[in-house]
Automatic annotation (TrEMBL):
InterPro entries: MdtP/NodT-like. This is TolC family protein. The lineage of its organism: Bacteria, Pseudomonadati, Pseudomonadota, Alphaproteobacteria, Hyphomicrobiales. It comes from Bosea spartocytisi. It comes from the Bacteria. SUPFAM superfamilies: Outer membrane efflux proteins (OEP).
Length: 503
């Protein structure tokens, strides 16, 4: 498809051989006045400037309000030293989950890259709010007796006229970029907290297996001496030695998982070198059950991804209005030209006559579509808007479901963990103690003793994993209400549970 271009020109010759009529001069002045006024209005009303904090103010406010943590964009050596000093202070003590989140928010370079993306978005917003740059051209045509110099300046009137609207759209897009940066902060906080609980649970498993292994080693040594004296037969000896060997394997598996989970946490914290010597705290005890009312409404009100989708939808709505307003004009350029001509003539008597002239030209070029009256532009904008609207509606439905699912998992894991603590573990201890008494009284054999000891170990490991899963579900539930936590919950828990080494 093609479009036609219509050019409206007016020539004002102040000196030279050509003179304009009064209506032509008036028309030229009106066009010039219109261009100047449009440019001045767009420049004064549409220009944006860089903010003092690079757009970080709203991100810092959201981080402190939602998770109670500080975030800092490191842009110079002083900021880097300040952040490093605080990280070192936090690493001097065994890390808690809250301290680990704060270290990640201060030290993770991927988050700093997200802050740089926000700076890029602000630069794009400022660039979109500036008037279009005019183009300037100078040409010179010279011969033996003639010289012509032409100077041109061309600017887009359409870009100037739509500058306020485009500036408002750019500001809305920058607001969405701020929300996306806040979402990156919440996502890193959620991922770090989950990984902390996995690493702490792996440490607890190693400690428990070490204690069980020490008891099994002592029992194996006793059985070895009893076997040498004839007090225990070889079958009972072999069963005890096999149990001790199994514990050795399980301890090795637990140590391997411990190293893996610690390295995953290290990546979240962004640590290396001497900082890798940090110590982890233990899993927190089971808290009181958190009762939340109207979780769907709270999620719809707080979820940052929903706020991002709404902001992007608002920007698309304004873009659609701009497309409809400019559907019949693709381009409108104002061109001003000033020409200087100089020539020489030789008369019959040998005298040289010099002539010169100056002229100004003001031209308005409008590109008017003939075969496409803007339908494709408007249709594209409308379909883009409807796609975003449908995705927002889908996200709202999903947010409700995710909030209910997260609360269900939180409540179920709470009940499971409490059941292990209040019933399963105490009963397992009673069973093993009684089994030991009966074995000492020669009322049962070593097989029952080993089976009860093995079952108690499995129950303790399952209780550790249940407490880990509860705290991960607690994190998922919290971030299901504020955002930034999707994609790290149940799948990751299942993967971590599958490598426990003693489940």
């Amino acid at each position: 498809m093609t479009s036609s271009a219509v050019s409206i020109s007016a020539i004002d010759s102040t000196r030279g051989r050509t003179a304009l009529t009064a209506p032509a001069k008036l028309h030229a002045r009106r066009l010039l006045r219109f261009g100047l006024l449009a440019g001045a209005a767009a420049f004064l009303g549409g220009c944006a400037s860089f903010s003092a904090d690079g757009g970080m103010g709203s991100v810092q406010s959201a981080a402190y309000t939602d998770i109670g943590k500080d975030v800092v964009k490191i842009g110079d050596d002083q900021a880097a030293l300040t952040a490093k000093s605080r990280v070192n202070q936090l690493l001097r003590k065994p890390l808690t989950a809250d301290a680990a989140v704060q270290v990640a928010l201060l030290n993770n370079r991927g988050l700093q890259a997200a802050f740089n993306e926000l700076g890029i978005a602000e630069a794009q917003m400022v660039a979109a709010s500036l008037p279009p740059n005019p183009s300037i051209g100078i040409s010179k045509l010279s011969g033996r007796f003639e010289l012509e110099i032409e100077r041109q300046i061309i600017g887009s009137l359409l870009a100037l006229a739509t500058l306020p609207a485009r500036t408002e759209i750019a500001r809305d897009q920058f607001g969405a970029a701020q929300l996306r940066t806040a979402e990156a902060v919440l996502r890193l906080a959620a991922d770090t907290r989950r990984q902390y609980y996995r690493a702490a649970a792996a440490n607890t498993q190693v400690v428990f297996y070490q204690e069980a292994k020490a008891s099994a080693d002592a029992a194996s040594e006793l059985f070895k001496r009893l076997g040498e004296s004839g007090g225990v037969n070889k079958l009972d000896q072999a069963r005890e030695f096999a149990f001790e060997a199994e514990l050795t394997v399980q301890l090795a598996q637990a140590r391997q998982l411990q190293r893996q989970e610690r390295e995953r946490l290290v990546r979240q914290l962004g640590l290396w070198g001497e900082d890798l010597k940090f110590q982890l705290g233990s899993l927190p005890p089971l808290p009181r059950l958190q009762s939340v009312k109207a979780i769907e409404a709270e999620a719809l009100r707080k979820r940052v991804d929903l706020r991002i989708a709404r902001a992007e939808l608002d920007a698309l709505a304004k873009s659609l209005g701009l497309e409809q307003a400019t559907r019949l004009i693709n381009a409108a350029d104002l061109q001003g030209t000033r020409t200087y001509d100089r020539s020489r003539n030789v008369t019959e008597d040998g005298r040289v006559e010099r002539n010169s002239s100056r002229s100004r030209t003001l031209a308005l070029d409008l590109e008017i579509p003939i075969y496409d009256f803007g339908q494709s532009k408007v249709a594209l904008a409308e379909q883009t808007y409807m796609r975003a609207a449908n995705k927002l509606a889908e996200k709202a439905v999903n947010v409700r479901s995710e909030a209910r699912e997260a609360y269900t998992a939180y409540r179920a894991n709470y009940d499971i963990t409490r059941q292990y603590q209040n019933n399963v573990l105490p009963l397992r201890k009673i069973i093993q103690d009684q089994s030991l008494l009966q074995y000492s009284g020669m009322l049962n054999d070593v097989t029952d003793l080993i089976t009860d000891a093995r079952n108690r170990i499995l129950s303790n490991v399952a209780a550790i994993n249940a407490r880990r899963d509860f705290w991960i579900a607690h994190t998922d539930f919290k971030h299901a209400l504020i955002g930034g936590g999707s994609g790290g919950g149940s799948v990751a828990v299942a993967a971590a549970g599958g490598g426990g080494g003693g489940d």
